[in-house]
Design a protein that fits this description.
heterotrimer, A alpha/beta, B mainly alpha, C alpha/beta, A: alpha/beta, D-Maltodextrin-Binding Protein, domain 2, 5-stranded mixed beta sheet, 12 strands, 44% helix, C: alpha/beta, Rossmann fold, 4-stranded antiparallel beta sheet, 9 helices
């Protein structure tokens, strides 16, 4: 029996080696083929309704493939840091990043380009919310944030621009540091979780993406007897598509422009394309550039999320 | 002087003084209680409320969704697909961790080093230094959580499935190596020495003698590792491995409770079936082995001892398991398609160089010493609360989950029990086992996001999340201890007319406590490791610092924090070794 | 109880046509046996003859597949669990492998003899702060190891552990002592000491002793009645001084 086991494991081992042997040449083979068939790998960081976005990304992939004339492959990644890293090492060619993650990604991949964003992204806002029981009153001026001192507070995901970076920036503008909260500030992980945690009273206040808040309120999913909006922040730039610099090399010099065009020409009157726009919660896409994110980069450095 | 029955004389019976209540053992117990109280104070006991009554409505809604999981065909297809993915990752991860572990096990064994470096220098054995060095390397590799390994491999290899496979294989391989080396060192050495004395080189001699002798124990352990890999694969889903963990996180982010339940059910089924299979197999492999409490060396392997292969030659379960494994392994590699070419590609080397350049040298001046101490204290406090809570609950649940306890013919029930007792016994067993299964199936970060609704932020929700997960694993391990108890001393107590309660306190509890303790300490180390994945619920500690550094791409900071983390785990390792020594010897 | 024999007061153990099956294997077959108060009975026979099974039937840890086991005038199968425990308190058992809880101190293993009488609470308290230390110390002195009282049991040698098991029986103060190959794990010198201890115990207190043995000489020198068992059946049952080589050879003879 023991001999048999040894034999069996040897067999397995050789099977495996054979598998490795097969895999390696296959990879080389793919690289050797004409560049045009190498797929464009895209991904997206989780945002509003990430499960819908991630699970229905196929639609966008096939639209882009049709428009660009190259195969497009979608790879799901849930973790912000993992998607930035995968972009850096070249496993993701083009990613739907948030403001902060986009800057982080471009700093790690010099020459990477911010291409397009949604109409709402050039005028993005965060909202601060609080339970009614906390006694914090809505305010009009940024100085009102000082009221949050001594209360518990939660951000969204720790790398989120609208759920963490910009709220923390506006807090510091109002002279509120993280030590001023009661206990450590929380990181709920998502905008919806922030609403839920504040609504249930686990945290007295929180900050999140404006469009998620508006959507949930419109859908009647927020108990406005429990939780209220305190303040809407001034605008900043948020989500955008960032592409690696080697795309032009791989697919031709006009390729980045073709991508931009493909997004700009998404037509709300075409039912299929309307679905893609709805998926992103956008009326239309607009062109953007790296310069639009100078403020985000500065804030990121100030807060320590960019080194 | 008093005359004994056999005619000898002996000293007066009162000659032996009663030993003090305060010995090393009670010292550790007091220290533990003090530690838990300190941890509770750290968590803010007496300063604020722990429980948030406003969160119960959410909990109710979450539980209600459990009655109505998302069973739409599309979602079921997705669930099946990601379940297979998680399984495949676990299989591939286990496969490599076993290869790595078995090789590492030989080179981390005392007996191997003793053979190649038999000399002594200045009264000290020459082999000890390199032997301990190898063991430290293994300890370092396993101290780092799978998630961190995963992010590391993504940053040098990329998004390839290989990253997740390696993230499981490295730390689990290191644990396997440690356990396997200890099994090897415990095996009778005569056959090995015979070969050595006839001039066979050590590694070859080891492969022909001790390795086959240890094979069954190692096989049993391999299946336990597989259970752990399933859970690790689920957590790794978050960073891009796909699978159940990934989908659960997506649904959790937008609080789609119905979907979460469907995925949970798949996770329960996957974990439950794996545990059932592995438990059955290990019972077959271990049924004839006996392990009397403190004699067991390894704390990580649920069973240990010596056995001969002949006993299992025709065992159907063993045979079927090997065949299933033989089919599952190639299938899994085909299913996830890891690209092994990437391991040695130029690109990987380039990125490795980059990451190394960014990470070195570690910089402890980023934070003042007091801050490092404070963060470490929070981490330790969280793990202490987790293990204390999990240990107590596991103690309560492990006995009713053992099949030889409350069922008819069990340790406490006469074999003549009627239908009512039989039904009750089974009901209690199923409930206890289900609680443990649910507790260990749900990844700790998911527990954390659930607990944060009912507990105010701070150390406590983090500890509760880790505690739940630990409870699930510890309870199962402890139930296995109970099932493997030597029942002869218990029969002796029964025969002298002791009641169930007495048999419990004078037999079952003392007989099982050394292994309970060993498992508890082992899971304590694991809990500290896992603080990394629950750092975000306002619990702070090193775990939170690490997460912030990771998302800021502060590689130098990450490296520095990891060093502090590993040091902390080494300290905990020393403490738990000292505790085990005390309880073994006194 | 109409079917009770008249001389019941004198009979401690009685087996009536008892058979015990383990699966398809009958370990004890149709055995009828009476043991009276104060008797010292040796059960001898080859391995697998059913000696251990018989002992387990006598102390109520096994119930027979067929037939009746009567102990102290009680039919064991008719007793409630509580009633059974009550009878079991009157019977002390000593085992080949000692069957002690190894990682408890000696005092607790000895005090386990009290468990039939103590309340649950008293038992628990005693684990933390040993109670009735004097009784235990006296019992340990009687078996010759008073100095080991606070030692951990697994630190003791085999002979010393068997003495702890006997001390436990002393503390239990039963009417009868069953010993299942109590000396098989010990060397000849230790065996003789332990058997002498058991004999003296039985002689000085008048307790009934039933002991299964491999060593015929020990049986002859320490008991007054010998029951020969083979394949689950009684082959002979005689006073010790009447058992000669002929009986022994017949008992151990090899049948094809």
């Amino acid at each position: 029996m023991f001999k048999k086991l040894i034999l069996m494991s040897l067999l397995l081992g050789s099977l495996l080696l054979a598998a490795c042997g097969d895999a390696a040449p296959a990879a080389e083979g793919a690289a050797a083929e004409p560049a045009s068939t190498e797929p464009l790998v895209i991904s997206a960081i989780p945002d509003q309704d990430p499960e819908v976005l991630q699970r229905q990304f196929g639609q966008l992939a096939s639209y882009l493939s049709e428009q660009l004339g190259v195969p497009v492959e979608y790879k799901p990644v849930t973790d912000y840091a993992a998607s930035v890293t995968a972009f850096r090492v070249g496993d993701l060619d083009m990613v739907w990043f948030g403001g902060l993650t986009g800057v982080q990604a471009r700093l790690q991949v010099p020459e990477a380009q911010a291409l397009v964003q949604r109409d709402i992204d050039e005028n993005f806002h965060s909202v601060f919310i609080a339970t009614k029981a906390s006694g914090i009153e809505p305010f009009e001026d940024i100085d009102g944030l000082a009221q949050l001192k001594g209360h518990t507070f939660t951000f969204g995901s720790d790398s989120s621009t609208s759920g963490r970076l910009m709220p923390q920036y506006f807090l510091s503008q109002a002279g509120v540091t993280l030590d001023d909260f009661k206990g450590e500030p929380g990181f709920s992980g998502s905008h919806d979780a922030t609403i839920a945690l504040v609504e249930s009273g686990s945290y007295e206040a929180g900050a999140l993406n404006e469009s998620v808040w508006d959507n949930r309120v419109a859908a009647g999913e927020v108990d406005l007897d429990q939780v209220q909006i305190l303040w809407r922040t001034p605008p900043y730039h948020d989500y955008h598509w960032v592409a690696r610099p080697d795309l032009a090399e791989r697919y031709g010099d006009d390729f980045p422009d073709k991508i931009t065009q493909a997004f700009l020409s998404l037509d709300p009157n075409n039912p299929d394309q309307k679905e893609i726009l709805d998926l992103f919660g956008a009326e239309k896409f607009i062109a953007t550039s790296n310069d639009n994110y100078a403020q985000i980069e500065a804030v990121g450095r100030e807060i320590g999320k960019i080194n | 002087m008093q005359k004994t029955l056999s005619g000898r004389t002996s000293a007066s019976p009162v000659a032996v003084p009663r030993p003090s209540l305060f010995n090393r053992k009670t010292g550790w117990v007091l220290l533990f209680i003090a530690g838990v109280i300190w941890a509770l104070l750290q968590a803010g006991l007496l300063q604020h409320d722990f429980v948030n009554p406003g969160g119960w409505e959410r909990v109710r809604r979450f539980l209600a969704a459990g009655l109505n999981p998302d069973l739409s065909p599309d979602f079921l297809r997705l669930t099946l697909d990601v379940t297979i993915t998680t399984l495949a990752f676990a299989v591939c991860g286990t496969f490599f961790s076993l290869i790595f572990g078995f090789v590492a096990g030989i080179f981390a064994s005392e007996v191997w080093w003793q053979s190649i470096l038999p000399g002594r220098v200045g009264g000290r054995s020459l082999y000890r230094a390199p032997w301990l060095a190898v063991r430290s390397v293994l300890a370092f590799l396993r101290a780092i959580h799978e998630i961190i390994w995963g992010l590391f491999f993504i940053s040098i290899i990329g998004l390839d499935p290989l990253s997740a496979v390696l993230a499981i294989a490295i730390p689990f391989g290191a644990v396997t190596g440690k356990v396997f080396s200890e099994i090897l060192d415990e095996m009778p050495r005569q056959p090995y020495l015979v070969l050595r004395n006839s001039g066979v080189p050590p590694t070859l001699a080891l492969t022909y003698t001790l390795v086959p002798q240890a094979f069954l124990d190692a096989l049993s352990y391999a299946f336990y590792r597989f259970e752990c890999s399933i859970r690790a694969a689920a957590v790794l889903g978050i960073i891009g491995a796909g699978g159940l963990g990934h989908e659960i996180f997506l649904s959790l982010q937008s609080l789609r409770y119905e979907q979460i339940w469907t995925l949970f059910l798949a996770l329960f089924a996957l974990n439950g079936l794996t545990d059932l299979w592995s438990g059955l197999l290990r019972r077959r492999l271990g049924a004839k082995l006996s392990c009397s409490g403190a004699d067991c060396v390894d704390i990580d392997s649920p069973m240990s001892g010596t056995a001969t292969l002949q006993l299992y030659r025709y065992d159907r379960v063993v045979r079927a398991s090997l065949i299933i494994a033989a089919l599952l392994i190639p299938f899994s590699f085909w299913y996830i398609q890891p690209n092994f070419g990437k391991l040695f590609s130029e690109r990987t080397l380039l990125h490795l160089g980059e990451v190394a350049r960014w990470a070195f040298p570690p910089d402890f001046s980023q934070l003042p010493l007091s801050e490092w101490l404070e963060l470490s204290a929070v981490t330790v406090a969280m793990s202490l609360l987790a293990i204390a809570g999990a240990g107590l609950l596991a103690l309560v649940l492990s006995f009713p989950s053992a099949h030889n306890f409350l069922l008819p013919g069990g340790l406490l029930v006469p074999s003549t029990a009627g239908l009512f007792h039989r039904t009750l016994g089974w009901a209690v067993l199923l409930i206890a086992r289900s609680i443990l299964l649910v507790a260990r199936s749900i990844p700790p970060p998911v527990w954390a996001l659930l607990f944060i609704f009912v507990l105010f932020p701070g150390i406590l929700p983090g500890a509760a999340a880790l505690g739940m997960y630990t409870l699930g694993i510890l309870g199962r391990l402890m139930a296995e201890v109970v099932e493997n108890l030597d029942d002869r001393p218990l029969t002796a107590l029964k025969a002298l007319g002791a009641r169930g309660g007495d048999i419990f306190t004078y037999g079952i509890l003392p007989l099982s406590s050394p292994r309970f303790l060993a498992y508890g300490l082992y899971r304590w180390e694991e809990a500290i490791r896992a603080t990394v994945v629950v750092g975000l619920v306002g619990a702070g500690g090193l775990g939170h610092l690490l997460t912030e550094q990771l998302s800021s791409f502060d590689y130098q900071g990450v490296f520095t924090t990891l060093i502090v983390f590993v040091t902390l785990i080494f300290l905990v390792d020393q403490i738990s070794a000292a505790v085990r020594r005390t309880f073994r010897e006194n | 109880m109409p079917d009770l024999p008249l001389e019941t007061s004198n009979i401690i153990f009685e087996l009536r046509n008892v058979t015990h099956q383990f699966g398809s294997l009958a370990a004890v077959r149709d055995v009828t046996l009476q043991i009276r108060a104060g008797e010292r009975v040796a059960l001898v026979g080859p391995s697998g003859a059913g000696k251990s099974t018989l002992i387990s039937l006598l102390n109520g840890t096994l119930s027979p597949s067929q037939g009746e086991v009567w102990v102290l005038g009680q039919h064991l199968a008719r007793l409630s669990p509580r009633g059974l425990r009550h009878v079991q308190r009157q019977i002390g058992t000593i085992y080949q492998q000692f069957h002690l809880v190894n990682n408890l101190r000696v005092i607790h293993n000895v005090n386990a003899g009290h468990l039939g009488r103590w309340t649950f609470l008293k038992g628990v308290i005693s684990l933390a702060w040993p109670l009735d230390v004097d009784t235990a110390a006296k019992a340990l002195a009687q078996v010759g190891i008073p100095e080991k009282i606070y030692e951990r049991t697994d630190r003791l040698s085999g002979g010393q552990q068997q003495r702890v098991a006997i001390a436990r029986v002393l503390v239990q103060q039963p009417q009868a002592i069953l010993a299942d190959e109590p000396v098989s794990s010990l060397d000849p010198e230790r065996s003789r000491e332990i058997m002498s201890l058991l004999r003296d115990l039985s002689q000085t207190t008048g307790k009934t002793l039933v002991v299964s043995l491999h060593d015929i000489d020990l049986a002859r020198s320490h008991c007054d009645r010998i029951v020969g068992l083979r394949e689950g059946q009684v082959v002979f049952d005689r006073p010790a001084d009447e058992v000669n080589e002929t009986f022994i050879r017949a008992l151990y003879k090899i049948t094809a």
